[in-house]
Amino acid sequence: MIKRIINTNFLRKYLFIMILLVASILIITLISSPVMPWDIPVGVFYTADAVILAILAVLLILFIYKIYIPISKLEDKMSEFIQQRDVVSSGSFSEPATMLEQMDQFLELQKKAIEKEHAQAIMTQKMKYAELQNQINPHFLYNTLENIRGQAIVDDNFTIAEMTEALARFFRYNISKDNGIVKLSQELENIQTYMQIQQYRFKDRFVFHIYNHDDSDAIYHCRIPKMTLQPIVENAIFHGLENKIEQGHIDIHIEAGEQRVTILVSDDGIGMETAVLQKLNDRLRNVGRKIEWVEGKENNNGIAMENVNNRIRLLYGNDYGIHVSSTLGVGTEVEIALPFILE
User: For 339, phi and psi rounded to 5 degrees?
Assistant: First the structure.
């Protein structure tokens, strides 16, 4: 209460009340003055005082209940709304001092919410378009792969048979209808299939491991956006290990907290220069830019990773996403932060 009185808003909020009280005192003093020039009975003065006080009291009550209290409630609600949104936006706004400032911040928050919803809708449309491009006659693709696999088995070429089976599983996972959210176990199974295909292509040049550092298997039921890991691992292969002469390593480490899941994808490839790394992390943080679907060539370093990051941030907020650490000549580590959401 003391802070509320000391606050400069006190004069603004109670100015009208103070004016009414001062005016009533002046009027009563003027009317009750014994030196007034007119000759009016004392009883009339007292009656006039009572009427004026009654009128002022009614005006004061009307002001309090019709103007001051509703505005105060509105101001409190707006302040509460802004504080709640500040938590989501990591405190990007300062505490407002006036209702006008609160209104400005409220409008700014609404603008950001609309922009985010629009960006999410655009990204969803482009993702659906990309999925449609990959869904051209899937049964023809499956049947063709199955025919190749069958012929390979007849010819005792079990390597070709395993390769075509892996390709079929990978394509089936990519175009499956699951609203884009899957279990972590499904995502890990798909990345193992993807690595099986790449091992065939690169003649077992990579050593691949998955490490679960959680005490229980509950982490495997955590929900995760589909195709989160594959673009990250693909970047590790083509931008980290492909140009490395000796055998390379790709490791996935999974760590779980009470409300957060961290997935680390590390490689011992060629790494990145400091300037390149800084530019990539700036893009991932969307410094000075809106979150949106990024167009680019498939082999552009960071394009697929940036789209994965944007999808995570649109789904779960700016507290989650991707951060990259890298040392030139040593390797790269990609940290993926997600909320711990079970089925």
Answer: -75, 150
